[in-house]
Amino acid sequence: FSFLLNVSATAISFFAIPITLRIMGLQNYGSFVFVQAAAAIVFTLATLQYWQGLLVEFPGKATCSRLLKRHVLRSLSFEMFGILMAFLVILALPLLSLGQMVVFSWTDLLLIILSTLLPTLGSLVAFYRLTDRYQTLMLVGLACNILRLVFLNIAWHVYPTVSAVIFSYAAPEILRSTYLGFSLFFRKSEASEGDTVAQLEQKKIYSAGKWSMAQAIADLPVAHVDKILVGLALSPEALGIYNILKRLYSIINMAT
Prior knowledge:
Blueprint: H1 2-46, H2 50-57, H3 65-92, H4 106-117, H5 122-130, H6 134-158, H7 162-185, H8 202-218, H9 220-233, H10 236-255
Helix pairs in contact: 1-3, 1-4, 1-6, 1-9, 1-10, 2-5, 2-8, 3-4, 3-5, 4-7, 6-7, 9-10
């Protein structure tokens, strides 16, 4: 079931690309992808994946949801730092006179960063997996992709501008993260603090987070750095085409 939800969400996300291209044009779309890739790189380099340590250390160790929430909040603090660093670096990129950056205002850049990085917040993934609510996470993600498609169609017919497209990508992710965050904070505890069954080893959590961070950095060349290189060496148009082909390949590869 989760696999079908994941494929459906990816396919719906891909169907949003033609509408995006129709409104933004290939050049602006390539610049959009360039900013997304740059934000993802900075975020990966600046964020300790503490949440991966929670997935390693929590199962079978503790049943207290308040304890889990406390650690999830700590994990979120690392990720919020990564988002802040991404925003600061992206805002500084126009100083390098990069042609890929000139089409966006600082508000557009902020929304692009949020639309790119909010879906990658592993802290929420860890919480919903450790509380056996992973399907809820997947369903909310699917609803988010459908809502993005709806917003893009509205933008296409009512206000076909670059800023409207960026808002259409960011707004569903902000709503998704807000809903998941409220569900996290206002979920009733199912056990008391006394129900902790084993002592959590903080060093193991940090160690797993550091190794996961190193692995994520090692994956950057094929995940995002390639887009930066295409955008710098060729053109935004070439990057746009490259990203479309890469997304199509990922969908086919996932389905098979």
